[in-house]
Write a structure and sequence with these properties.
Elements: E1 5-9, E2 20-23, H1 34-37, E3 41-42, H2 50-56, H3 63-75, H4 78-89, E4 93-97, H5 106-115
Parallel strand pairs: 1-4, 2-3, 2-4
Length: 118
């Protein structure tokens, strides 16, 4: 059965349909309070490494290579990916991210990886 995984910016209001809200950023989003974020968990160690994040810099032409590099990092981080998959199997999960670009960010890659083989 496929997972119910949603993506939402940290700056968007929480909704009762979000299910478990999990921040998947290494850095806390600027200007967002803990109360406003309404998170169930912050999985900062599943986010791209600091080096990869800095290299990417949200440059659209680097997106294809960023995807590949982040997928490799996730493959090396099987425990946390497995933990997140287990949460997804239990019900709806919303991956919370901070990037402005809603189509090209690490949460998009993470969602695709989580949905593989489901």
């Amino acid at each position: 059965m496929p997972f119910d995984i949603r993506l939402k910016r940290a700056y968007d209001s929480p909704d009762s349909s979000d299910g478990k809200r999990i921040l998947v950023e290494r850095l806390w989003p600027r200007g967002v309070t803990k109360e406003a974020a309404a998170l169930h968990e912050w999985m900062k160690d599943i986010a791209p490494s600091a080096d990869l994040r800095k290299w990417y810099g949200h440059e659209p032409d680097r997106w294809p290579e960023f995807q590949k590099r982040y997928e490799r990092e996730l493959a090396d981080n099987r425990v946390l990916v497995g933990d997140l998959r287990a949460m997804c199997a239990a019900g709806p999960v919303t991956l919370i991210f901070a990037a402005r670009d809603e189509a090209r960010n690490s949460a998009v890659v993470l969602k695709a990886v989580l949905e593989q083989d489901t």
